[in-house]
Amino acid sequence: MKIDGTPYRSVWVDADGWSVRILDQTKLPWQLDILRLVDERQVAQAIRSMQVRGAPLIGAVAAYGVALALRADAGTDSLDRVVTMLGETRPTAINLAWALDRMRARLHNLPAGERVAAAYAEAQAIADDDAETCRRIGEHGLPLLREIAARKPGETVNVLTHCNAGWLATVDYGTALSPIYQAHDAGIPVHVWVDETRPRNQGAALTAFELGKHGVRHTVVADNAGGHLMQHGQVDICIVGTDRVTRRGDVANKIGTYLKALAARDNGLPFWVALPHSTIDWRVADGVAEIPIEERAEAEVTDLTGRTADGRLETVRVAAEGSPAANPAFDVTPARLVTGLITERGRCDASEAGLRGLYPEAP
Fold it and tell me: Which residues form a coiled coil (predicted)?
């Protein structure tokens, strides 16, 4: 995707051929900072601090973290150590474990002298696979928006999304936003309701930033406005991303997604979830009971960071002094509330039969 005419991916190897570059997403949309990562500790910190975030992207960045670690020590103990360490940075997004398992499987039986080159090649393959996967997700989601546009010729197709599931959350294109970008590029009049997505405001900060840079019409709304918009006929479809999908079709996504699905069901609106193959956890059946939900720092709820009128970035407390805060980062939307899943292989019901129909080789 492009920022002010310059093409970017969300992670890439620098011109030196070994260090890794990322966009610092904690600084967006106020400033564009490009960080250079030189070892696995910096990669782990970038993931924990959400300088990189989004399930597919943290998997790709972690893969490069393995390559960086092996530059210093390509032994088997080093490989096992870095895979374990990076795997502990965030618990909910299954793409992280998927990418690290893939790196370990590719490298474990190689001689130490071959591991560094193979690690960079495998990390690049993971990144390239994600970009192409997300492009295909857009192709399979685009007909949903075309159908709506055909039913209301000359009118705008209104999409509601939650959190950020665009190219900043992936290597390129995005998941939930990929069909929207393709619809916009195809000339379909599309408008996006962008949930602010408290407490970190990934919608207001990141999704709005992305859509604006691409020229897609959008409006930022408070998280609790979605049901009102649906009741008044101002939403045609909901499309969200996900950090983990169970084999039965339950969906873990940013906190607040479950409430949007409930509102969509009550108003008879389609609620679609876009995901790559790396987000499916075939080992888990019941998402509510089995998916670990990350609990993040209280300060994300009690404090807000923004730009002041004179251009300074400031963090202020918005909660009453002395009041504790809880901060579950994700919730689980049961499959029964999901209209369907959009994958790189096509669309399917949110069910085990639907997923296995697209992925017959799955365990």
Answer: none
Is 260 annotated for ligand binding?
A: no
Q: What is the pLDDT of residue 157?
A: 98
- Asked about 243 being catalytic, the answer comes back as yes
Instruction: Tell me if 75 is assigned to a ligand binding site.
Output: no
Q: Is the pLDDT of residue 5 over 90?
A: no
Q: Is 90 annotated as a binding residue?
A: yes
**Closest by alpha carbon to 169, among 139, 137, 140, 215?**
137
Selected catalytic residue, list 129, 243, 250, 281: 243
Q: Is 202 annotated as a binding residue?
A: yes
What is the average per-residue pLDDT within 62-67?
A: 98
| Domains annotated on the chain, with CATH | 2-129 (1.20.120.420), 137-358 (3.40.50.10470)
CB atoms within 10 A of CB 97: 19
> Partners of 246 in the beta sheet?
281
What's the one-letter identity of residue 122?
E
Candidates 226, 242, 224; CA nearest to 234 is: 226
Judged against a pLDDT cut of 90, whether residue 86 lies above it is answered with yes
